[in-house]
Each structure stands twice: as C-alpha cells, then as structure tokens.
Design goal:
The complex is a heterodimer of chains A (349) and B (152). Chain A has 349 residues and is mainly alpha-helical. Chain A has one domain. Helices cover 63% and strands 4% of the residues of chain A. Chain A is built from 13 helices and four strands. In chain A, the strands form two sheets. In chain A, strands 1-2 form a two-stranded antiparallel ribbon. In chain A, strands 3-4 form a two-stranded antiparallel ribbon. In chain A, α11 packs across α12. Chain B contains five helices and no strands. In chain B, α2 packs antiparallel against α4. Classes of the chains: A mainly alpha (349), B mainly alpha (152).
C-alpha cells in the first residue's frame, strides 16, 4: 500500500510537471505583453455550445502544440542522426527528474483512510546532490544538439552553451554549500523544517550573498536572459536548435522551461522556506487540510520565482560573451568561495 | 531508501514515454513527410553550405572545461564536509554543556575542520590564481597583450 502511494505520487507529479510547461509559456507571453504594453495571445479559446470553457487566449499553448505536431520533421543529410535524435530526449528527461527530490509539501495525514502521504517524490539521501547531478546532465542536450546538426550556427551555440553552463555550475554549487553549512544537513525536508517557524529563519535573509549568487547562476544555467547567449537569436539564428523542426524543436523548448521549474523549486526550498509559511502553516499539523495548504503555499512561492525569471528576461539586455565569462569566473566564484569561508568561520567561532 | 531511487526512475520513465510517444508515435502519424533534397541541406543563411562544420574550434573552450573539471571535483568534496561541519560543532557544544571531559582534539574540532578544508581549498585557489594571472580567464585577449607575448 505504501509503495503504491509513493509510486502514485511520483506519476502524478511527473504528469503535473509536464502540464506546467504550457501554462508557463502562456504566462510568459502574457507577462511579456503586459510589460511591453501589448495584449498578448487573446484569440484561441474553447467554447462548447456557446458556453465558454476557456477564456480567450488561454488555449494558445495547446494550439501551438498541435501546430508543432503537424510540422514536418527534417533531419539534415549531413547530420549525425543518432545524436540528433538523442539530444531532444536529454533536454526533457533529466530536467524533469531534477524536480523529484524537492519536497513540495509536508507529510499529509489522511486520518479517515489511515494514510500518511509523503509529499515529496523521492526522499533520497543527500537529495540536493541528485538535483544538481540531474540538472547538469542537461548540458549534454545542448552540446549534442549543437554538434550533431553539422551546421555552423548550432555548433557555435552548442560550444557557448557548454562553456557557459559548466562555468556557472561551479558558482551554483559553491553558493549551495554555504547554505548547507548553516543548515548542517543535506536533507531538503529538514532544511524546510528549519525555516518553518520564523521569516528571519529563511536562508535568503541568513545568506543574502549566497542567494544572490545562486540566482545569477540559475539564470545562466537555464540559458535565460541576460545569459541566453547559446540561443542569441539575433546573432546565432537560434543557436543549438537552428536545425531542429517540429516536435523535436519543442522538446528543447520544454526542457528549458522544465529546467526553470526545477531550479525555482530548488530556490524556494533552500532559500524561501519551501512549503512553509511562518505563523500560518503549522509544520507537522495532523489536519486534513495541512497537505493541500502546504502544496498551495509551495506553488505560490514557485510562481513568484518564475514571475521573477520572466520579469528579468523582459527587462535586461543580453551580456556579451566575454562579460559573461568574466562575471562567472572572476566575480561569482571568488565571492562564493569567500562566502563559504566567512560562513564557516562564523559557525566555528 | 532504494524505493526513493525507484521514484527517480519512475520520473525518468514517465519523461521518456512522454517524449517518445509525442515525437516518435503521435507526431509521426500526424505530420507530413515530403522529403526533398534541398530541404535537408544545412542551413547557412540561404547560401550553399561551405564544407563541414566539424572543424577544430578555439582552445579556450577546452581550457574552461579543464578548470571546470578540477573545480567541480572540489565542490563535490565540499558537500559532505558542509553536511558534517555544523553537526560536529553542535555535538561538542552539547558535550561541553553536559560537563563531559573532552580530549584536546575534540575541544578544537571547530578549528580543525575549518583549517583542514581551508588548506584543501587554498591548494586549488593557487591553481585558480595561476590561471587568472596567466590570462586564461580573459576571454578576449587584446592585441597589445599578444604583442607582449611575442616579444617574450
């Protein structure tokens, strides 16, 4: 019974995660329209016998998906076919799997059925390492995709992407370490419990520098503006996915958004108290509504982080490549190392 | 514990099924397939593509990858240390509060753990400083710099 429920939770979260992407795409288009004083998607809707089911514009992601499904799939004759097929798969799967160690709710006790559901897909030991490992697998998608097409623009995009992602991964890892130092554990559920009682316990206030470094590195890891040089559509056509068409192209798109979702889950869990809300949500409560309430709180916080992602994208211009490398190696990494040293010194004294 | 990694696997499988179902099954039925020689040429702004793209590329990418490898191993070593550091400090504090007799090593565990890691990190920082001073972190090397190198 217990095994069945954990498997059920795993499948439910995986399916839900894949449904978040179209919503996020719609959100991004609406928010960007709002920032630029436009309307955004406002036509495609669903009406059954005169009864509006979906308001105008909300069916746009579905329409896009259907359109992409009907598009012819072309593979350049000069391409390496195997890697060309493999890259879109790698773009989606590890990015989705990176979410599975993140606790999206407290233990949900359903007394009437005698159940105790752990609202975390996998309570793996040292969960944060699993997330890091899986999310860094995604770099293969960009490297393979860029290389396999045997075309100049994708190659440039792929090379840039690889160098960028591995550079910022170090800053990301180092920023996480200073948080784990103050937490004293690698167990994500426990880190959330530590932040559950006071707003001042949130790691974004305890470790502001680490929070800032992690945010910058997360933008670079996910190829979001101001660090979207691998795509850089105005100079590299489309970067690593120039030669892709149809659904294979959309898999890269999905992968990017899934990476954003997983990364915002990490940010919320480590820095913003995860599913907890001090003063309102009582951790360890046995009430039936405790489970849904914590999940709702987590989703709202994640939406806030995702909104920030989109907001930054439509506000800041793109960096130059040498600036990007300079920020990564010469500013973020020394800062993160210093932060670890100071944190350890404060803890030890 | 093993069940937890099974769940990671379940995630993998759901993702794989999703991709394969969409790309290779559903879309294959729906999409047209009208291959044409010119459609399948490599894109190069409308001109016929010149040569292969699998050429030698700049060594800077290789340097970055090398430095990354070393630093990533360092980061991986720092994780277990970060997990243990506070716990062992707390244990010693508790023992002190209970009035237990401590050996000299136990009493100085904080500074021991700190300096142990400091030495480990410093060894790598020496390499980092070397790479920095050598100018390998400088993405754009100025012409004047190159002239200097030629003179040397």
């Amino acid at each position: 019974m217990g095994i069945l429920i954990t498997l059920l939770v795993a499948v439910a979260v995986a399916v839900a995660l894949l449904q978040v992407v179209p919503l996020l795409v719609y959100g991004e288009r609406k928010i960007s329209a709002w920032i630029q004083d436009r309307d955004g998607p406002n036509r495609v809707h669903l009406t059954i016998k005169g009864v509006p089911i979906m308001p105008k514009g909300l069916m746009q992601p579905l329409a896009d998906a259907i359109k992409l499904m009907f598009k012819e799939d072309m593979v350049p004759t000069k391409a390496d076919r195997f890697l060309f097929m493999l890259a879109p798969v790698i773009a989606v799967v590890p990015n989705a799997a990176a979410f599975c160690v993140i606790p999206f709710g407290d233990n949900w006790v359903i007394a009437s059925m005698g159940l105790d559901v752990n609202l975390q897909v996998s309570n793996a030991n040292a969960g944060i390492l699993v997330t890091l490992a899986l999310s860094s697998l995604a770099v293969y998608a960009l490297a393979f995709g860029g290389w396999a097409a045997n075309s100049k623009f994708p190659l440039m995009g792929g090379l840039r992407a690889t160098a960028q992602i591995i550079s910022y991964e170090i800053a990301l890892g180092l920023a996480l370490i200073s948080v784990l130092l103050t937490a004293g554990t690698l167990d994500l559920q426990e880190i959330v419990h530590q932040q559950a009682h006071n707003f001042t316990d949130w790691n974004m206030f305890k470790q502001p520098l680490a929070f800032f470094i992690l945010l910058v590195a997360a933008f670079a890891e996910n190829n979001r503006l101001p660090f979207d040089l691998p795509e850089a559509e105005s100079e590299l056509v489309g970067g690593y996915h120039t030669e892709y068409s149809g659904l294979k192209f959309s898999m890269f798109f999905m992968g990017e958004y899934l990476a954003m979702v997983s990364m915002s889950g990490v940010i919320v869990t480590l820095f913003m108290g995860g599913w907890s809300l001090p003063g309102i949500i009582d951790p360890g409560s046995l009430s039936f509504f405790h489970g849904p309430a914590t999940v709702l709180c987590f989703v709202v916080k994640m939406a806030a982080v995702l909104f920030f992602y989109i907001w930054v994208r439509w506000t800041l211009p793109r960096f130059r490549y040498d600036q990007l490398m300079n920020i990564g190696w010469k500013k973020l990494i020394p800062l993160a190392l210093l932060n670890i040293g100071v944190t350890a010194l404060v803890l030890a004294s | 514990m093993y069940l937890d990694f099974t769940n990671v696997l379940v995630f993998f499988i759901v993702g794989l099924v999703f991709v394969i179902l969409n790309v290779s099954v559903l879309s294959r039925i729906l999409r047209p397939s009208i291959p044409h020689e010119e459609k399948e040429t490599t894109y190069e702004c409308g001109e016929p593509a010149i040569g292969s793209s699998w050429i030698r590329f700049d060594i800077r990418f290789y340097t970055v990858a090398l430095i990354f490898l070393i630093f990533d191993v360092e980061v991986a070593f720092l994780y277990p240390w970060a997990g243990v550091f506070k716990r062992s400090l707390d244990e010693i504090k508790e023992a002190k509060a209970m009035g237990l007799e401590l050996t000299a090593t136990q009493a100085s565990i904080g500074s021991f753990l700190f300096f142990e890691m400091l030495i480990f990190v410093l060894i790598l920082v020496v390499g980092f400083v070397y790479v920095w001073a050598k100018g390998d972190l400088q993405w754009i090397k100025t012409m004047t710099g190159q002239e200097d190198q030629q003179k040397n």
